[in-house]
Design a protein that fits this description.
It is a single chain. This protein has 432 residues and is α/β, with parallel strands linked by helices. It contains 21 helices and 15 strands. 39% of the residues are buried.
Length: 432
């Protein structure tokens, strides 16, 4: 059953960058299919994938069929869009393993129930590409696309115009043709006439619409969403440690939750529209509430709750909230001592841990060793020393300097010591 118009829904959320003329009229009648490609370069998607995922989710919620296409074949090539160099290529076994994990993560957003008319599909382009010979491809596909057309794409021009010695390989040059063939294949075999993606994919997508026109005498449509940026100029979805992953084994639920909780006011107002399913009226109410009492961080709390619950679960969110409240409690030691070990471990699941012998604790451990030499929480002794000089290190929520010695007085439940670097980084020493 269709709800709000797909275009209207994503428009107020700020999720449209470019859209091909006639798109809105095309999807008004009957169930239509749209696809977005995902590269299986890891066994987990990361939050940089969330915008296209949300596009597919809104598409399905408006009554249409979303198709998530795992780029098993294109993952063996590499997409030059937005890249300055080629990436590592994957073998088929790794791609298949990654695909399983990706479907599991997508199922938190998309309904794969086959009994429904608009059931989501997960496909892998390796299924139709691996049996296609090079001669077949250049005869049946390549002849329909001119080099002039392919050279005009920004993704190609930007790479070729760079002064890099390695330049751009033929493999990556051909990427847009391979992706275009995907669109053509899905149009012929799955009645899919829409491809969506990030704004950097416009050139690749329109190559597909051109192939559909020239080979299949059909009409394809393109829609792209903006690339997400942060107001402070730093890269969205990245921390000092790297990507924020959707897999809890790669990014703990607590760290995932904290990433959204620490969003700036300006970004939170934008992100809550893009990364949640809250209605327009609900979000307007939250924005107004936040502006009246900004110190309560209403937007950040709502954003982190919604996205953590979707990606992980309600229970996972509650545990992350519990951990956050304890860590920022004014009565930290009192609050945490009442927890039994199982709850303690549940709250701090995914937080980096290191085991240290009790005898060493009894003798006392200096802070440099506790942060780096004995634990590798920080990359080097110099980094640990710098953090201590900046007064950013705490032991069980109490600020310490380089002269502090950790010993048995610091043990929580006779077993744990919590170290913190600033507000965002937490580490656990487990005494054995």
């Amino acid at each position: 059953m269709k709800s709000k118009s797909f275009i209207d829904e994503i428009k107020w959320r700020g999720m449209i960058h470019d859209v091909m003329p006639g798109f809105e009229n095309f999807i008004k009648d009957k169930v239509k299919s749209a696809y977005i490609g995902f590269d299986p370069t890891s066994n987990s998607l990361h939050i940089g994938h969330l915008v296209p995922i949300m596009l597919l989710a809104h598409f399905q919620r408006s009554g249409h069929r979303p198709i998530a296409l795992v780029g098993g074949a294109t993952g063996m090539i590499g997409d030059p869009s937005g890249k300055s160099s080629e990436r590592n290529l994957l073998d088929e076994e790794t791609i298949n393993t990654n695909q399983k994990h990706i479907k599991e993560q997508l199922s938190h957003f998309l309904d794969f129930d086959k009994s429904k008319e608009n059931s989501a599909l997960l496909l892998n382009n390796l299924e139709w590409m691996k049996g296609l010979t090079f001669l077949d491809f250049i005869r049946d596909v390549g002849k329909h696309m001119t080099v002039n057309y392919m050279m005009a794409k920004d993704s190609v021009k930007n790479r070729i115009s760079n002064d890099e010695a390695e330049g751009m390989s033929f493999t990556e040059f051909s990427y847009q043709l391979v992706q275009g063939y995907d669109f053509l294949y899905l149009h012929k075999n799955f009645q899919c006439s829409i491809q969506m993606g990030g704004s950097d994919q416009w050139g690749n997508i329109t190559s597909g619409t051109e192939l559909i026109r020239r080979i299949d005498n059909g009409k394809g449509y393109a829609l792209t969403c903006p690339l997400i940026t942060k107001s402070d100029g730093s890269k969205f979805g990245k921390t000092q440690e790297g990507n924020i992953w959707l897999d809890a084994h790669k990014t703990s639920v607590y760290k995932f939750y904290q990433y959204w909780l620490n969003t700036s006011d300006e970004d939170a107002e934008k992100y809550i529209k893009i990364f949640t399913f809250l209605s327009e009226n609900e979000i307007k109410g939250l924005i107004l509430e936040h502006k009246n009492t900004p110190h309560l961080r209403t937007l950040q709390k709502a954003l982190s709750k919604e996205i953590t619950s979707i990606v992980h679960s309600d229970d996972a969110y509650k545990n992350a909230l519990k951990a956050s409240n304890i860590l920022y409690s004014e009565n930290f030691m009192k609050d945490i001592e009442v927890l039994d070990e199982s709850i303690f471990l549940e709250i701090f699941e995914g937080v980096p841990q290191y085991e240290i012998q009790l005898s060493l604790i009894k003798n006392g451990i200096d802070m440099i060793s506790a942060l780096s030499d004995k634990t590798n929480f920080l990359k080097s002794n110099s980094e640990a020393r710098r953090a201590l000089k900046e007064n950013s290190i705490s032991v069980n929520k109490i600020k310490v300097d380089e002269s502090y010695m950790i010993d048995t007085k610091d043990l929580i439940s006779n077993k744990y010591i919590i170290l913190s670097k600033g507000k965002k980084n937490t580490y656990i020493i487990k005494v054995i």
